[in-house]
Design brief:
InterPro entries: Xyl_isomerase-like_sf, Xyl_isomerase-like_TIM-brl
CATH superfamily: Divalent-metal-dependent TIM barrel enzymes
Largest sheet: 8 strands, parallel, barrel
Radius of gyration: 18 Å
Shape: globular
Distance between the termini: 14 Å
Protein name: Sugar phosphate isomerase/epimerase
GO molecular function, one term: isomerase activity
Number of helices: 10
CATH class: Alpha Beta
Structural class: alpha/beta
Organism: Pseudomonas rhodesiae
CATH architecture: Alpha-Beta Barrel
Oligomer: single chain
Keywords: Isomerase
CATH topology: TIM Barrel
Number of domains: 1
Order of helices and strands: EHHEHEHEHEHEHEEEHEHH
Amino acid sequence: MHTYPVSISLSSYGAELVRQQGQLSFVQLLAQAGARRIEWREELLTVEQPAELAQAVAALGLEAVFSSPLELWVAGRAQPNAELSATLDRAQAFGARWLKVSLGYFTDTNDLESLHALLRRHPVRLLVENDQTLHGGRIEPMQRFFSEVERLGLPIKMTFDIGNWQWQDQSALTAARLLGRHVDYLHCKAVSRRADGKLVALPPGATDLHQWEQLLSHMTQGITRAVEFPLQGDDLLDVTARQVASLAVLGQPLAENAHV
């Protein structure tokens, strides 16, 4: 059976552990677990040296994504976020081929031509994710944005976060039908509501994996899928390897799943 590339968002190991150990300490673990991509988390950086992390990834043949909490569009500004250029540079310094950001406050007055001009000057590719906010985590603004991206031919793809749609009480399947053709990176997490009403990310069960198969049917076959749910246990290598193996086989063509 063919396997597809799996990424690990380092936030999956918990903010406290990642800040304590440093993101470099997880590179070898991910390679041994069979992951093909590592997602650096800007908000969890402490004293890491970008060149050292970039070298570690290259040495093990991994790819890297740089995840930033930056919003692409800020309220009241037609041009992209003033920090975008520096953040693209930072992603490149960490050896990342992609920068993942949130949509932010996208409106019809935003200047996509200036965004295009910036991206033409930079080798790092931009991924825009649906977050958990009202302005950047709903289907409608994402549709409007990617329709313009498609019309203008901008080199931007979508990070589709399966769980985040629930923060705005929207259907991930509907989102996949409407946005799936734009997706290049799939953030995977199951979501449950605690007794106090708070939504929390969880590892997937069998029902979640089945639903994720349905979502993938609306996207380009073989896209990278990322763990963004808790990876916890006494043996992190075993825990990680099992989740990588599970995600790597999702989205097989129907012919490969058929019994003969």
